[in-house]
Write a structure and sequence with these properties.
Chains A, B, C, D: One of its GO terms (biological process) is inositol biosynthetic process. The structure is a homotetramer. Chain A is α/β, with parallel strands linked by helices. Chain A folds into two domains: 255 residues, Rossmann fold (3-Layer(aba) Sandwich); 102 residues, Dihydrodipicolinate Reductase, domain 2 (2-Layer Sandwich). Helices cover 39% and strands 18% of the residues of chain A. Chain A has twelve helices and eleven strands. A seven-stranded parallel β-sheet of chain A has the order 3-2-1-4-5-6-11, with helices on both faces. In chain A, strands 8-7-9-10 form a four-stranded mixed β-sheet. In chain A, helix 1 packs across helix 4. Chain A is globular. The two termini of chain A are 24 Å apart. Chains in contact: A-B, A-C, A-D, B-C, B-D, C-D. The interface between A and B is large, with 55 and 55 residues. Strand 10 of chain A pairs antiparallel with strand 10 of chain B.
Chain lengths: 393, 393, 393, 393
């Protein structure tokens, strides 16, 4: 903790689970590009006026590392993304040094095929990687962010991989963000540890496209007292996500979040299904079509259709940077437990909070105000787990 | 003013400018249908829990009349709307008595072709019609609501028809609502009278379809810091509205409101045009296509398209009933001047208020709270114009 | 066979399998309405100039009957369709007599729940119903048309219901049309009888919406040498069809036809899935969204999207009348075997023919020419099965 | 004329009016890329099996040059197109030599601002440029292709620029193709010269997107006897085309072709307008939305909507190569006058031919057959205008 931030600014680690994926690669490359002034910070809410003076760590202070089980190096992955139009063509070479630096901080994750380590051994190994990252970088703190492929809904009592990583984050004393629909810290067996850790955490399942739209359209229908009869949707996407979600169990995990978000904003569960199709030729681009049949006055039948054509990595990456900064600052300010004020970012937010995007934005603005006035907590530093602590409200 | 509302409930007049149009006909027929329990109050925000105990006049207390310059009787117009699918087939006969009753309270408007009356004579004649309506019905008060076809943007100093009606409302001591983009009370020459009247008023240009959507999508882009490059739109509509808006001057009036709403919610004025096409075969149904080109992180190009297929009359009518009740109650409670809390209903709201639908809804909920606790103002009764009064906040 | 058609016009039976369904009801009501001059023959290709003088039986000569296993009478079903907007509101009463007449000619189909009859007994019972219909009406011939709900793809050797009806048609000496994706005459065990019967037949799976579109868009891409990468689609529909197709086995049968049509017109099998969702609130209305990702010159990625909002019954019914007339006339003219010239009407046409709609239309026009010049075959009359006959080309 | 094509293959010039525009640049770069095997010939109909052995000049024999009035060199223009995603990123450098070669063959067009040359002097200067090109390259022949920006509909008797170029083509003895809606050879004053020249010509207004779609959808509705009530459309496009068409007079020229194509394929002129909006941020990408309201059986209202997102240059360029090859071969084979068999490529085809794309394709296939069997005409060589010749059929 630096008493003189202007002299020795804090350095904040961002430890990415799935560190060689599209989202992580775009976040690392984009952070470097914005820091260097090559691109404006489009899509980053923390760079808008609302967060001025909120004490967020500057983009230039972020240090990246993470776990992954694939071995395509980050610079090469960035080239592939540029070829697919996700990154500007010349960006990978322009930020090559930063990609190389992050690549050097990536460690092999787990469990691996045929892994014989116990749960506890695995968690310890993963936590050690994180602690080493913090020590090597002389970081003030690190935030662990899950951006790995969606897991199937877990069956049985064993911790799925996403929960092992979450447990490792707690053990390493790091705040945790789950940007995916996977279990992560949500697993019932981790609840006592999450509470005992006194760490802030956020999640889950980033709201980047179809659900973002639904979180403004649902309230519109509800506030206007229009009766939604059926809400149907189809998502077409390629890339790793498309393939992962072609697994019905993973798609079920994803869809559960989508449906919850819809029911929460609408107040009812309408008819209709939501499909997720793997269409490899679309690459990292996603198309989401929604068809909403609703009744107006005297039962008149009406229809709204939306088609969203977006690039999930480019939508997610700035939110990852936002979340890392916000959760790092929340940690610094002594907040702990579920950060329900970050519901703006998630399909299935932790804690109790509103479901309509407008109200979620208002809660985020409130948080910015609180962070502005908060001092720095007496921070025991990463690696030393705090004793039990109450929720932050 | 009744001290014992349960014994002698107040009767509230709704005086419609354009009383034989689609919107007016649907409002009259729908009010009767909902009162009789034939249909649920879909689309009426004032029938949701938020307005419980806010002292709004019950639907059964509303009495309809108005001005029009066409002479197709209301029951016949209702039959035509039922044939076009806007009203349920059997509704015109089911609420025939109420349609007949309203028809008897419709008077010829003005100015007529070749009319030689002075502005003041016209206003006086129109005001007399309204006062007679209130007297005949022994009404506690009446709200004047403009639902006539859109006028061209006025040139010169003369009051356009919509402003003559607005002036008549003031002279008759009635609160005024402008649901159209026409000038109405907005005309600069009426400003002193509006202030002096001490009457509450609301407007303008009801937000029923494309702009309703834009008022939730615009804030979504702004809050997520996504850069909207171009927002283009095409509206296809038939019916009277389609023909009226085929007049470029009327379309210009309409589009000004649309564009202002977009700029207000988005914070910038993006590229792109908005077309309004007269497509007679669509009848009272409207299709609005919007194409929004926006940039994500690192300049990635993305697109959202929406297609809204709605029936404007069925969208507008419940809002007319809402507004009549809200403004009548505001009058009763002693509010005066521009009711900016009703921005939820309008493209181009009077007063200062937020542009995002979510915030407008919050303001409406606040108003409900204030009305709940407000007593009844010492109401001098309709017809007697109050002395000058300050704004209500 | 009448030598003097003007004196004693031939009467042609149309025996509908699924006679109380939406399509059948619309066909019966619509035939009466067009005959009475209440509506133009929109959607009937046989009423265009191409078929003038082709000897088709006039609409006024068609007599309806059929099998069904539900017992809602035709006039009542017509009322329900009118309430749902599929039929004009006043049509059921205007053609009440014709609906009653058809209702009197509907017999219970089979097999029924717990039916103990053998396959042969069932076919005989069904065939007897058809023969009785022909005799009672003194009909020159009857065409059997399957418009029942889609069956699951049959497993095992037993004839599914649709094939029992097809066998009954053959046994009764009647030409057969399969407007559904069910097996019908397509079952391998029926092939020898179909050939031996010398009867003309047509099918299968009427091309009414999404596939109709695909049959013009597929050739467009192929002719322009544009490389289709992925063709994805979602169908939303309610009504009986939606529920039947919510059964994955029935949907599989339906989709097989859709995919075959696409592959045939496109020349390749692109990526992408086609979904069929049951959305009860849409009633008899169907919405089909297609998303086609294709490459242009130098690999440039482009997209075409289509949204079709149609009423399947209103699209299918005029084609049923077309097919009944065409197949009756083909029978009269002595044609036998698969009528590949009717591929214009089907997703998965019998015989060998082109897949592009334009070429299919040309083949239909050719058929009209041949029918124009054909005499009347020496028709042995219905009920007497012809000996083996060669294909008609 | 080479008797031994394998020894000394003919070299064919392609003289582009608008030689530094997007379409021309894409055509030159793409021809080189396909010749070099860098890309498949997607979008080139002349590279499909149908044209095998039709004697078309190989792509490697095409030599490019042309007129333009802007001075941004071709290689630089190619870089800009690559930055906008129209060309693959690495293509401009890969085909740099070919772009340079074409750039050297581009001459300043006319009339220039303040030009004092007479019509005849201008035509002579332009024709001299073309003749010089043929002589310098020792070309067997050259085809002049207009791909310049759309001109306003000409008023008065003076030849517009596009017609001056067309006259120059005739004077230089070159076949002519008009890929734009501008007047070109269509000007009444050029008709006698066109006939007298004995040269083949084709046009006008390339069918690349919305009208391509309409040319298959229109016949679909017509063939199915479905009654189209209204056909509305909006085109959004940036680039030079968007700006040029923001001029209402140019847009009128463009729309005239679109409407003619629609009326021709549909057989009627439905309600509805077509808008062309300049949206600079879309660059060379075009989005076209069509909304088609049609009636089915018994007047049931249905709707088809299409959204086409394409890159006009990438759609047009392969057609330019097709047309240059086809018209060069037609010239070689002695065809003259309007090549109505090329209606497949145009919104407003010369000569009499079918309007439905499928029939136009069949006509094109017929032409391929005729070219296959045609010998080489006694070709007087470019530069020497033939005497009057009859039409080629």
């Amino acid at each position: 903790m630096s008493a003189e931030p202007s002299v020795s600014p804090s350095r904040v680690g961002v430890w990415l689970i799935g560190a060689r994926g599209s989202v992580a690669t775009t976040a690392v490359a984009g952070c470097a590009a914005v820091t260097a002034g090559l691109h404006p910070p489009t899509g980053m809410v923390t760079e808008t006026g609302v967060f001025q003076d909120a004490g967020l760590p500057p983009l230039s202070s972020l240090v990246f590392g993470g776990h992954d089980v694939v071995d395509c190096p980050l610079p090469k992955r960035a080239e592939a993304l540029a070829a697919g139009g996700v990154l500007p063509h010349d960006l990978p070479s322009a930020v090559g040094a930063e990609l190389e630096a992050a690549e050097r901080e990536i460690r092999i994750g787990g469990p691996l095929r045929g892994d014989t380590r116990s749960e506890d051994e695995l968690v310890e190994d993963l936590a050690r990687d994180i602690r080493d990252f913090v020590r090597r970088g002389a970081l003030d703190r690190a935030v662990v962010v899950n951006v790995a492929s969606t897991e199937p809904v877990p069956e049985g009592d064993a911790l799925p991989a996403s929960s092992l990583y979450a447990a490792a984050a707690l053990r390493a004393g790091c705040p945790y963000v789950n940007f995916t629909p996977s279990a992560g810290l949500h697993h019932p067996r981790l609840a006592p540890q999450a509470t005992a850790s006194g760490l802030p955490y956020a999640g889950r399942d980033g709201k980047t496209g179809q659900t973002l739209l639904r979180s403004v359209l649902g309230p519109m229908f509800a506030q206007r007292a229009l009766a939604v009869r059926a809400w149907s949707g189809t998502n077409l996407l390629g890339g790793g996500d498309g393939a992962a979600l072609a697994d019905p169990a993973a798609a079920a995990a994803k869809n559960a979040g989508k449906e919850r978000a819809l029911a929460d904003t609408l107040g009812t569960v309408p008819e209709g299904e939501t499909h997720i199709d793997d269409v490899p030729s679309l690459g990292d681009w996603k198309t989401a079509w929604d068809h909403i049949a609703f009744d107006g006055f005297l039962g008149t039948r009406m229809v709204l259709q939306t088609t969203w054509q977006g690039c999930d990595s480019a939508l997610a990456a700035p939110l990852i940077l936002d979340l890392a900064r916000l959760v790092a600052r929340a940690h610094e300010a002594g907040l702990s437990g579920p950060l329900s004020e970050l519901g703006f970012y998630f399909k299935d937010p932790v804690g109790d909070g509103p479901a309509a995007l407008g109200e979620q934005y208002a809660a985020l603005v409130d948080l910015a105000g609180r962070l502005r006035t908060a001092g720095d907590a007496e921070d025991p530093g990463p690696g030393d787990v705090k004793g039990p602590a109450g929720e932050h409200r």
